[in-house]
User: Fold Uricase from Triticum turgidum subsp. durum.
Amino acid sequence: MAGRFDLQGRHGKSRVRVSRVWRRPAEAGGHLFVEWSVAVSVVSDCLPSYTSDDNSAIVATDSIKNTVYVKAKECTEVVSMEEFAVILGRHFTSLYSQVGNGGDGNFSQPFMVCVLLYKSSGARPFMKVFLFEQVSEATVTIVERPWERVAVDGKPHSHGFKLGSEKHTTEVNVKKSGSLLINSGIQGYSLLKTTQSGFEGFVRDRYTLLPETRERIVATEVTAWWRYPFEHISQLPSKPFCFTQRYQDVKKVLADTFFGPPDVGVYSPSVQNTLYLMAREVLTRFPDIASVQLRMPNLHFIPVNLGGKENPGLVKFADDVYMPTDEPHGTIEATLSRANSKL
Ligand SMILES: O=c1[nH]c(=O)c2[nH]c(=O)[nH]c2[nH]1
Assistant:
């Protein structure tokens, strides 16, 4: 018996690199500059293109790329990358229905539009039928290159930037119905402290060699994702809420909790506990964040002990010289959500 198959597909364009400058006068804070790597992926009714040579319902990924540049141009007011991702998501999920139904987007099938075309020669008009694709869903992912304004002689420069390290990311999913998911995050946020960290009381089995300690270096490269509670386009906050500012706030709360007060720090009994406290602080401080996921590899700094059988204790380690490693590393991650939130 011939098999029956269920086909699902999506297509889009990845790594569309776009920069946008908003040229404000120096008195208003100077130029704003962003560099984004955008990926757009749409779910659409173009299954015949997979199963046959019929491409008539495909929005070309080249057009998707061009749309990113056009929409960036149209953003004459400063936008955050979350807002830009929503603009793109709405564009792709509404564009093809607007032609036929005035924009309320309630088609469940691909639809046809009949257009009467008139020839300039005055010949009889003829009718052409277009089949428009239904984009039911769009996912837009953006990673920002961290250009930061420089300061010269302690004064913020009006149009000079240097590259920083950690990156702001976002992933936005928009459905034709208007339903929405906005996740934002941080990638490559490297944090280290030279003391106030230990690891004791863990399981000892016959392969355990790791000594217990209350004194070690702890280092990690945080990847964070958090979810905003806006579940429909209509719930999007109006202006004063700024996703970019919230990103800066979350970054600060994560670091402040990791390090503790500047003079004394805070003791970390495990990466697990520090991760939890960081996530909890984010949810406590920001009611507009519904859940937060943290991934914190434990990047080991191994105490160097020279010696061996012949020369035991040739050079004794005294919390001073370490061998930095990034492979292998511990992998520690958790998600913290509000108890009443639906994930
Ligand atoms: O903070 C830590 N958590 C662990 O789970 C772990 N495992 C390990 O070997 N060292 C550490 N450190």
Notes: Residues 199, 210, 270-272, 298, 330 surround uric acid (CB under 6 Å).
